[in-house]
Amino acid sequence: MSYLKDFPNKDGYFGEFGGAFLPPELEPHFAEIERAYLRLMRSADFLNELRYIRKHYQGRPTPVYYAHNLSEAVGAHIYFKREDLNHSGAHKLNHCMGEALLAKHMGKKKLIAETGAGQHGVALATAAAYFGMECEIHMGEIDIAKEAPNVTRMKLLGANVVPVDFGGRSLKEAVDSAFKSYLSQADEAIFAIGSVVGPHPFPKMVRNFQSVMGLEAREQYIEMTGELPDHVSACVGGGSNALGLFSGFIDDADVQLHGVEPLGKGTELGQHSATMTFGKPGMIHGFKCMLLSDEEGNPAPVHSIASGLDYPGVGPEHSYLKTSGRVNYHAVTDDETLEAFYTLSRKEGIIPALESAHAIAWAMKFGRENPGATILANLSGRGDKDIDYVTENFGHG
User: Fold this and answer.
1) How confident is the model at residue 1 (pLDDT cuts 50, 70, 90)?
2) Is 92 a catalytic residue?
3) Fewest 10 Å CB contacts: which of 144, 202, 295, 357?
4) What does the buried/exposed string (b/e) look like for 49-76 if buried means 16 or more CB atoms within 10 Å of the residue's CB?
5) What average pLDDT score do residues 271-285 get?
6) What whole-number distance in Å separates Cα of residue 141 and Cα of residue 171?
7) Given this model, what pLDDT does residue 397 score?
8) Among 71, 273, 304, 380, which one carries the catalytic annotation?
9) Cβ pair 14, 317 in contact under 8 A
10) Per residue in 206-228, pLDDT tens?
11) Are 350 and 366 a contacting pair, CB within 8 Å?
12) How does the average pLDDT of the chain come out, rounded?
């Protein structure tokens, strides 16, 4: 029995979470995507092309690294899966190359997506350039200002970056805008959703494309140490980097899995994005998940210092894994995240993405409380995109 084969079910549900709640005009397009995905993932030609891209273009496998200076400082053994060394600087290219290859085989000419921190946008623009496709990226105006280096990268790669100026002008509104645009272009385009969210089959597809991280990490960690880690941690916004890493260990009962959310500035609604900590079941963007909502049940305003984590929903699989008890979910503040950002930079010579710094902050905190424990954390992206924002607002640490 394998968890990954059993979940989701054929209708895209992880327990009570998931599904596909679509406008009628999009139902045939999502059905077409699912048929193509199920067919191509059993095609040796498709899989061999994807493996070639992984090795010769992305530079996979990325290494597992023992953070010796940080480990000495906190008293536990901390390892990183170095997705910051994946081409384009984050884990996002793992599913973007998969989605773009799928689109190519479906005869699509254009890739459409949302982005928060800009890493998904950069990765999809990279994939579009590789396959010779058009690319349209929707991004909230707040995130455009915070993540200016990634906006420049997307434009250099040939993407059309569409500023989103309504509502909270952040990730949720970028998804809204991208969905609206996709409605009028679904015949020739694919909506390449940027995380394990959205209507079925995207939570399953993105997890499976990202599972390359977990499969590599499990083999690499055993090769390095002769055993499995005690704990595996990753940040959670939508949750693709976490599920990618967890995939390698989900059937190992002795390995404890930890998702780390943004507690932001505090516990009041609007000050954080800690969906698993404070949310309840709800609907957003065509699927059911744990959701931060207001008194009317609508998605609530959210905040995180990390643009890629400020989403009121979360992947339906994470929602199931919390209710089933397989994954433990925690929240760290903006201040704890900044401390981890500066500490890793100084101790290891690695500047992490602010998203990844959430997982590092938890690993540091947990390590101090549990000396001798072994922790494998997902360093899901590099911090080039964040250095201007951090230093201009918080100094050099």
Assistant:
1) low
2) yes
3) 295
4) bbeebbeeebebbbebbbbeebbebbeb
5) 97
6) 10
7) 81
8) 380
9) yes
10) 999 999 999 999 999 999 999 99
11) no
12) 96
> What is the residue whose two structure tokens read 């023992």?
66
Q: Which pLDDT does position 76 carry in this prediction?
A: 98
Give the other-Cβ count within 10 Å of 253's Cβ: 8
Query: Which residue in 245, 207, 276, 201 sits closest to 381, CA to CA?
Result: 245
Tell how strand 77-82 and strand 134-140 pair up. unpaired
**54 neighbors 239 (Cβ within 8 angstroms):** no
From the candidates 34, 114, 261, 339, which is the catalytic residue? Answer: 114
8 Å CB contact between 99 and 240:
no
What's the start-to-end Cα distance of the chain, in Å? Answer: 48
pLDDT band with cut points at 50, 70 and 90 for residue 171:
confident
Q: Is the pLDDT of residue 70 over 70?
A: yes
Task: Please identify which residue in the block is written with the tokens 């054929």.
Answer: 10
Catalytic residue among 34, 71, 92, 99: 92
Structural domains of the chain in order of their starting residue, each with its CATH number: 17-55+92-202 (3.40.50.1100), 60-89+211-394 (3.40.50.1100)
How far CA 38 is from CA of 143, 171, 337, 347, in Å, comes to: 35, 29, 39, 45
Give the pLDDT confidence score for residue 80 in this predicted structure.
98
Tell me how far apart the alpha carbons of residues 311 and 289 are, in angstroms, rounded to a whole number.
Answer: 12
Decide if 249 contacts 255 (C-beta within 8 A).
Answer: yes
Say what the pTM is: 0.96
Show the CA angle centred on residue 220, arms to residues 322 and 7, nearest 5°.
Answer: 30
149 or 101, which is more confident? 101
